[in-house]
Amino acid sequence: MKTIKVSVVTPDGPVYDSDVEMVSTKAQSGELGVLPGHIPMVAPLQIGAVRLKKEGKMEFIAVSGGFLEVRPDQVTILAQSAETASHIDVERALRAKERAEQRMREQKAEHIDFRRAELALQRAINRLAVSEKRF
Ligand code: ATP
């Protein structure tokens, strides 16, 4: 089976490097699946899960936005933060979710801190979903 190399890179260093059969991401424009031989492109990503099919099994990585770059034999995902399912601290994500929900209750929807809390909530929910492989 044909494969494509996927690298996920953050400011703290590489998080994932592997040859996979398929990679699926949540681009700003919607779900974006990449198979070997995909045309070269660059796309901004949403907070979401990167889904990888490797040796017939699915693997998941939580990413907090960033960019996807597709080249003929390589996909690179550059993200502010990224965690594989096994590296997610569920307690921490639950605390972050609680904190964000509390801040959203205290702020008006148009306030800049509301938006910040909303993004923190999205990151926490995404981490919880990836840790539970809920897709
Ligand atoms: P928190 O409020 O818990 O720090 P956050 O969403 O604000 O959450 P980020 O700024 O996205 O955190 O990430 C900061 C660093 O902490 C990154 O290296 C990220 O991978 C890591 N990180 C954040 N939350 C978790 C988690 N629940 N499990 C593992 N690593 C995490």
UniProtKB/TrEMBL annotation:
Coiled-coil positions: 90-134
TM regions (residue ranges): none
Topology relative to the membrane: Peripheral membrane protein
Keyword match NAD: no
Annotated localization: Cell membrane
Superkingdom of this protein's organism: Bacteria
Domain (ATP synthase F1 complex delta/epsilon subunit N-terminal) ranges: 4-82
Keywords: ATP synthesis, Cell membrane, CF(1), Coiled coil, Hydrogen ion transport, Ion transport, Membrane, Transport
Any single Pfam family the record assigns to this protein: ATP-synt_DE
Matches recorded under CDD domains: F1-ATPase_delta
Domain ATP synthase epsilon subunit C-terminal: start-end pairs: 87-132
InterPro entries in the cross-refs: ATP_F1_dsu/esu_C_sf, ATP_synth_F1_dsu/esu, ATP_synth_F1_dsu/esu_N, ATP_synth_F1_esu_C, ATPsynth_dsu/esu_N
Subunit structure: F-type ATPases have 2 components, CF(1) - the catalytic core - and CF(0) - the membrane proton channel. CF(1) has five subunits: alpha(3), beta(3), gamma(1), delta(1), epsilon(1). CF(0) has three main subunits: a, b and c.
Function: Produces ATP from ADP in the presence of a proton gradient across the membrane.
PANTHER family from the UniProt entry: ATP SYNTHASE DELTA/EPSILON CHAIN, ATP SYNTHASE EPSILON CHAIN, CHLOROPLASTIC
Membership in a protein family: Belongs to the ATPase epsilon chain family.
Protein name, per record: ATP synthase epsilon chain
Organism: Neobacillus rhizosphaerae
